[in-house]
Amino acid sequence: MQNMASYKSQIKGELEASFKVEYQKISEKVTNNMDKLDCYVAIGQLVDLVKDKHAMLYEVRPDYTLDDALDSNFVKQYQVSEDFKNFPTVDIDLEALRLRLESKPVNDIEGIYNVGSSMEVGVYRTEKADSLVAVMLTSKLGVWAPGQIFMYLTATELPNRYDITAYGQVHKNLLSYKAHLVSNGILMSNVTKEGLKENFVHVDKKAHEAYKLHTLNDNVQYIWLNSFSRFGNADKRDALVKQIKNELNAENLIVDLRNNGGGASKISLPIVKAIRKSGVKVFVLTNFDSGSNAEQTTVRLKNIKSTVHLGQTTYGAIAYGLNYGYTYTSPSGFFSFTPTDMRFNHFLKYEVTGVAPDITLSPDSDWIQQTIDYINTQRL
User: Fold this and answer.
1) Dihedrals φ, ψ of 342, to 5°?
2) DSSP output for 285-340
3) Nearest of 74, 49, 56, 73 to residue 64 by alpha carbon
4) Which end of the chain is less congested by CB atoms within 10 angstroms, N or C?
5) Alpha helices in the chain (DSSP H)
6) Burial class (CB in 10 A: 0-12, 13-18, 19+), 311
7) What are the residue boundaries of the Tail specific protease domain, all occurrences included (predicted)?
8) What CATH number has the domain spanning 207-313+357-379?
């Protein structure tokens, strides 16, 4: 951790002294006999002293697969294991909890959530005002049992942001999410409120629709960029740049970066450069799943004078990155840590908090249509 660029650029002077004090406190608290969850949280407190959402601390996965979790013979053996029997569980009446949570409105963090199509969890406040727990109600995966804890959430100073310690949906290994946005009935992209009828925050498109210039009307064209991964996108990038040069003829261009988890600048920069050269008015869309290089691209597009940023704040993992992706296992063998090895310090002010939009869009209707409506109001 101390070799990371994020540590070296942030933890110095008085902060370095404070870090050493915190390290000493945490190291004295951690013992060989403590609970694995408590140990993970304690180590996480040390990691969180550096603003770097790319740096990852997580529990090592057990060696079973999703197919195993769906296999009745494996499940039967797993359910008699110590890992299953000792898994953290709540001691409350789940039916009474369900009845209490069913009436919670979509915009209340408390309530019943669907985890994909496999599980159902209830999120409720504990006796601490800033603390919530998500507990398993039903699961098609036999590795889970009703009453087992799915995640712990603690409110932060940022509106609707929570520090989350969760268990992986298949492997039940400990994971953490710093300053995670929970709003509009969406806890995570695949963990949504039971009463949420339609999810307009995320993109409902197939991957093959990305990297193509679409004409929406005489005045507006549209591009959805779903990823800037180096793998498989170079040819699509070149084809799109050619389209922008030859076919971008509307006055306004919507650049949709929703669900784009990032990638490489060598994919995104030529696209930004082509858009800048075109001279059109740019309207960039993001949601909380827009991260890393997608956030950098958002800022670069916003540096074009006429650009308007709409939608939802971005993820906040923008100032650092992973190139080599080395992972180190703790001496206990329980935890892994993947440090960052890339630095983009000019984006540091957006780290953790994300890039906030100029215009926040409503979760209740299609975001592309809302953007078109906004464009039309600017023409009046």
Assistant:
1) -130, 145
2) EE-TT--THHHHHHHHHHTSTT-EEEES---S--SEE-SS---EE-TTSSEEEE--
3) 74
4) C
5) 5-10, 14-29, 36-47, 66-69, 72-78, 82-85, 94-102, 234-247, 265-278, 293-302, 367-379
6) buried
7) 188-362
8) 3.90.226.10
What are 371's two structure tokens? 């953007």
The ranges assigned to domains in the chain are 5-193, 207-313+357-379
8 Å CB contact between 113 and 192: yes
The single-letter DSSP state of residue 355 is: -
- Sequential DSSP letters for 101-134: HHT--TTSSSEEEEETTTEEEEEEE-SSTTEEEE
Report which of 268, 267, 302 is spatially closest to residue 284, judged by C-alpha positions: 302
Q: How many CB atoms lie within 10 A of CB 276?
A: 16
pTM exceeds 0.90 for this model: yes
Q: How many CB atoms lie within 10 A of CB 204?
A: 9
pLDDT digits (tens, 9 = 90+) for 211-255: 999 999 999 999 999 999 999 999 999 999 999 999 999 999 999
Tokens 């590795």 belong to residue: 143
Listed residue (218, 290, 301) closest to 255, CA to CA: 301
- What is the CB neighbour count within 10 angstroms for residue 315? 26
Q: How far, in Å, are 54, 156, 194, 295, 365 from residue 191 at the CA level? A: 22, 20, 9, 23, 19
Tell how far CA 253 is from the center of its chain: 26
- DSSP-derived secondary structure letter, 267: H
Q: CA-CA distance, 287 to 260, in Å (whole number)?
A: 9
Helix and strand numbers, DSSP H then E, in the chain: 11, 19
- pLDDT digits 0-9 by tens, 182-217: 999 999 999 999 989 899 999 989 999 999 999 999
